Amino acid sequence: MPDLGATILHADLDAFYASVEQLLDPALRGRPVAVGGGPGGGVVLAASYEAKAFGVQGGMAGWQAVRLCPRLTFVRGRFGEYQRLADAVMAVLADVTPVVERISIDEAFLDVSGAVHLFGPPDVIGALIRRRVRAEIGLPISVGAARTKHLAKIASQVAKPDGLVVVPPGSERQFLDPLPVELIWGVGPVNRRRLAERGIHTIGELARTPSSAVERILGQAVGHKLSAMAHDEDLRRVETAHRARSVGAQSALGRRSAEPAEVRAVLAHLADRVSRRLRAKDRAGRTVTVRVRFTGMRSVTRSHTLAQPVATTLTLTEVAERLVWSAIGDAPAPCEITLLAVSVSNLTAQPVIQPELDLPPPDPWRPGSATGAARRAVDGSMDAIRTRFGADAVGYLPAVMGRGTAVPDEFRELAEHEL
Ligand SMILES: [Mg+2]
């Protein structure tokens, strides 16, 4: 069988945070629920399908949401529960194939080409995943299957809520052409409006527009990328953690101007997640990369390569912070940030660290310095406590402060993972 068919799957839990709340509290089932925010203010992070029917969406102000849907119930999010249940879902996916690439808390790509002989064709595997996640965890999950990642993700969005859409090879054009352009990964309201002004509403219309024209409308980089996506040109493989050459995390922020305390809190949270994953695998990396996305999808990437590999939360936070401010400093004012991402590459096995003499000037970023050693000791204690009592048991201060009454940034995971 030379062509195994639509073997890339994108599995995405439906209205994840809200679905978890409804799972844990039966009184919320069948009712419009908003996670985060309140009638007086704050931002809604996620809405149940019952609330979406009234037009309530993530990212909306609470007062606005309650005006659309007066019966809306607001609940505070429980990130620990979301993490626990999403991890259980990922374990179901890993039962089907080891080739799973988790791209955010509640969604993942799978390459099932090695699993079709065990479980059957991709549509059967998609149905199996959906059945098991519903039966064993109690959550609705949508699955899209296609020959490329890009298309599998579009298919899962079309499948929502609680559905399965397979795009058989050969039918891609037919499937894509009538769909609205905003289903393409990365097309937000601004680009959608710009395309609409030129009469481009569907993916088919975008595909029929020469790439050079699209680049004139949206800028070269974005235009080129979206043109390729409209033609379903996407050679990316499903990257498992095993194959991964970098470890990264990102947080969408809604729109906000860059406040130092907030930037630091988000970076501390991201650095903590990345470095914890590195330490869990006994790995460390030398190159730290940040991506800052501004309004209008414009992104700036900055990296710094350290003399020695690190996996230390505080050091990674500080390097990332410096890079982010350098990126912001070069941006034309006023600047609003919509996303921050941190990744570490140039990975090696965590080397045995030789203590160094602390010669002036002290360099806390060197793992062998006295400060570097102290930082690793703190990380070691935190990892041990978390292993025993759970991820939320302890945290670095800026990351901990992000929880509390304000909008927790960890709820703002995005459905993309490129850096
Ligand atoms: Mg989802």
Automatic annotation (TrEMBL):
Q: How is the cofactor bound?
A: Binds 2 magnesium ions per subunit.
What reaction does this catalyse? DNA(n) + a 2'-deoxyribonucleoside 5'-triphosphate = DNA(n+1) + diphosphate
Query: Highest taxon of the source?
Result: Bacteria
**Location of the active site:** 107
The region called Disordered is annotated at: 354-377
User: What is this enzyme's class at the first EC digit?
Assistant: transferase
Q: Give the UniProt keywords, A-Z.
A: Cytoplasm, DNA damage, DNA repair, DNA replication, DNA-binding, DNA-directed DNA polymerase, Magnesium, Metal-binding, Mutator protein, Nucleotidyltransferase, Transferase
Where is it located? Cytoplasm
Q: Name one GO molecular function term.
A: magnesium ion binding
Q: Where is this site: Substrate discrimination?
A: 17
Cofactor field: Mg(2+)
- Predominant location of this chain? cytoplasm
Please explain the role this protein plays, according to its UniProt record: Poorly processive, error-prone DNA polymerase involved in untargeted mutagenesis. Copies undamaged DNA at stalled replication forks, which arise in vivo from mismatched or misaligned primer ends. These misaligned primers can be extended by PolIV. Exhibits no 3'-5' exonuclease (proofreading) activity. May be involved in translesional synthesis, in conjunction with the beta clamp from PolIII.
| Quaternary structure note | Monomer.
This one is known as DNA polymerase IV
